[in-house]
Amino acid sequence: MLARLLYRDGLMLVVDKPAGLPVHRGPKGGNALEDYFDALRFGLPRPPALAHRLDRDTTGCLVLGRHRKALALLGKLFKQGKVGKCYWAIVEGGPEADEGRIDIPLSKRDDARGWWMKADEHGLPSASTWKVMGRGRRFQLACARAFDRAHASIARALRRDGMADLRRQYLRRARRALEVHRCTFTREK
Q: What is the pLDDT of residue 175?
């Protein structure tokens, strides 16, 4: 786990989450990234905890709070939309335009699983901008920036904007098709 550490300060850790491993154990049990957090204590009495989550197949920047006060602050920053995430996605097909905006309000699909979101015209605002970073014969590399609250899935949003998501097919071979490439924070002083 130490080899996957990207950033560390007194408030948070940022780790490079591998694809194919859920961040926490689901109803079926099994291995989860949280099982390895004990190695990231760095002298603190408790292991860090998740400040947000990423899907099982998504790779890249995952933010962990180092203690309760840090988790409360990080939760506030995420809730207020002061955390920006830049996703890179490999997609097949796509629009003729080189960039655009995806505006899909979201609501909880299931209250028991609060992170499970669905598109809902009466939901909370959720917006992403996207830009094609490169085009090949069949695939495109797209960069999408998520701004509001929680976006269910950048790949889902890209599909709605005319791009077919190859994440699941591609991940079986290369394990690297949707990635949180960068997280940015607007921190209060």
A: 37
pLDDT of residue 152: 43
- Is position 103 annotated as part of the catalytic site? no
- The two tokens of residue 8 are 């560390």
Q: Which CATH number goes with the domain that contains 1?
A: 3.30.2350.10
Residues 1, 41, single domain; the answer is: yes
What does DSSP say about strands 83-92 and 139-146: parallel, antiparallel, or unpaired?
A: antiparallel
Q: Is 24 found in the same domain as 67?
A: yes
Report, in angstroms and rounded to the nearest whole number, the Rg of the chain calculated over CA atoms: 17
The catalytic residue among 55, 57, 161, 165 is 55
What is the average pLDDT across 158-176? 43
Q: Does residue 187 sit in the same domain as residue 99?
A: yes
The pTM assigned to this predicted structure is: 0.76
Mean pLDDT of 163-169: 43
- Tell the burial category of 112 from Cβ atoms under 10 Å away from its Cβ (0-12, 13-18, 19+): exposed
Domain C-terminal end among 25, 49, 79 = 79
| DSSP annotation string for 155-189 | HHHHHHTT-EE-HHHHHHHTS-SEEEEEEEE----
Phi-psi region of 162 (alpha: psi -120 to 50; beta: other; left: phi over 0): left
pLDDT of residue 135: 81
Range of the domain at 54: 1-79
